[in-house]
């Protein structure tokens, strides 16, 4: 099985997975993200414990890439503090914009590294970064 097939499988798995797609009871933060160019819409909900993102989940709809990217981001960010989360957001966006290509740095993204090749598809970039920008809005504006 070639890498592209593995990547495609991982994206499809995450895009249909339900484990991060839910509403939180009494979230501390809620942020909507919308990509008008293809109609992706998500709402991120976060439970904070001081600086730690204790839980986060999303609702909404969109293409496989936006949904998979959101799910991968949640798996990666849950349990991290705001600073760590924002650094991972910058790393992901940097990877998609091709500003960061250092493999060691990108390994921090875990599963989300499979979205690296989206940078070759300009029309899909907004789909991949939607959740990451939305998270940045949610936790970045508090500082």
TrEMBL record:
Highest taxon, organism lineage: Bacteria
Residue ranges annotated for the NIF system FeS cluster assembly NifU N-terminal domain, each copy included: 7-127
Region (Disordered) residue spans: 17-36
GO biological process, any: iron-sulfur cluster assembly
Comp. bias (Basic and acidic residues): 23-34
InterPro entries, per the entry: NIF_FeS_clus_asmbl_NifU_N
Any matching Pfam family: NifU_N
GO MF assignments: iron ion binding; iron-sulfur cluster binding
Similarity annotation: Belongs to the NifU family.
UniProt cross-references to NCBIfam families, sorted A to Z: SUF_scaf_2
Protein name: NifU family SUF system FeS assembly protein
Species of the source: Clostridium sartagoforme AAU1
